[in-house]
Amino acid sequence: MSSELDRSKPKYRYLILHLLCWSVLIIVPLFFHNTAEDWLVVRNRYLRWLGSPLSYILVFYLNYLWLVPHFLLKKSDWKLFVLANLLVITAGLFLMDVWHWFSIQIWPEINSNGPKRPFIKFPRYFWAVMTLILIIALAVAVRMIQRWQHIEEARKEAEAARAEAELSNLRNQLNPHFLLNTLNNIYALIAFDQDKAQTAVGELSKLLRHVLYENQQDFVPLCKEADFMRNYIELMKIRVTDNVKINTNINIQPNDSTPVAPLIFISLIENAFKHGISPQGKGEISIDLNQVDGDITCEIHNTCYPKRENDKSGSGIGLDQVSRRLELMYPDRYTWEKGKTPDGQQYYSKIIIKK
Questions:
Q1: SS3 state at 318
Q2: What are phi and psi of 296, to 5 degrees?
Q3: DSSP characters for 175-234?
Q4: SS3 330
Q5: Which of 59, 81, 106, 256 sits most deeply, having the most CB atoms within 10 A of its CB?
Q6: Residues of 179-215 as b/e, b for ≥16 C-beta within 10 angstroms?
């Protein structure tokens, strides 16, 4: 029901705009006359003149409602359109003449010096034809602009629907991707420390609620996302040795309701643990998350080690998903700097989502 009302709003806007424009054309001339003249003289002159704007309105709507949509927009037949308008202009001039003749009979010219010619003279014919041509051009322009607007609106709606479908697909991919990486970590723990593996399963259950429910929303409060990141980091810490230095600075207030896309940073943290720890169990990872004046900054540094052949922690789709989600959800509102330091020893990634 609401969508039908939304679609009807432009029609009401166009109707009101048309009424205002024609009202100005018809009514305003009444206010521009010699105040010393008798009102009866002014009225009769106005009523005799009224035939011209009424003819303009008729010609405009014949083109706006019928000739332009049928001959130009559907058939693209310029010849037929021009021929039809020659007939319309002729009819418009005829109506002006008829109105002029009848108006003189009904509302005669007062204080006239002799009889008046009942029909419009040639110079007035010429200017009437020029005016009617301009009216036709105006009808064409208005219809073309409205058509362009409708096409543009349809294109935007199609793009929005496509983006929403793509975003939904990305979210659906992210759940199994995250779960696969975490289960691989727990699988690795089982081989050497079953107690830690059990603890990891407990931590995983806390995370799954966020992944399965919060991730179905477009945005979640930043404080919830920060809690999820903390829990995930604690889960990842279970499987690393004491030789791995993990520095976290998640400086987010407990009640910070700044909206953020769920799990938008988690792939960066996964990537840091995947590539930031050597086969000998050494490495350093630094994770910073803060929000200042509505701008959210996530910055991660980690030592850089090639992925081990026996590493089953994902297929590398996480960062591609992050990039696409940023484009869809924060167009022109984010920056992402990433790469290796000049010595190749560290990898850095810094995302800033602007207010």
A1: helix
A2: -100, 130
A3: HHHHHHHHHHHHHHHHHH-HHHHHHHHHHHHHHHHHHHHGGGSS-EEHHHHHHHHHHHHH
A4: coil
A5: 59
A6: eebbbebbebbeeeeeeebebbeebbeebeebbeebb
The per-residue pLDDT for range 178-219, each reduced to its tens digit, is 666 677 767 766 776 677 677 777 667 666 666 666 556 778
> CA-CA distance, 336 to 297, in Å (whole number)?
10
Q: Is the pTM for the entire model greater than 0.70? A: no
Tokens of 265: 């940073």
Amino acid at 103: S
Positions in the chain short of pLDDT 70: 1-11, 33-39, 109-123, 158-181, 185, 188-189, 192-193, 196, 202-203, 205-216, 306-318
Determine the straight-line distance between the first and last CA of the chain, rounded to whole angstroms.
33
Residue 301 and residue 272: Cα distance in Å, rounded?
A: 7
- Distance from chain centroid for Cα 7: 16
What is the rounded CA–CA span in Å between residue 289 and residue 232? 14
Q: What is the dihedral of CA 199, 203, 204, 206, to 10 degrees?
A: 150
Structure tokens at 251: 């400086």
User: In 3-state terms, what secondary structure has residue 22?
Assistant: helix
If DSSP codes are grouped into helix, strand and coil, which group holds residue 266?
helix
Burial (CB count <10 Å: 0-12, 13-18, 19+), residue 290: middle
DSSP letters for 278-310: -TTS-EEEEEEEEEETTEEEEEEEEE--PPPTT
pLDDT value, residue 150: 81
Complete domains list, the chain, with CATH: 2-156 (no CATH), 169-353 (3.30.565.10)
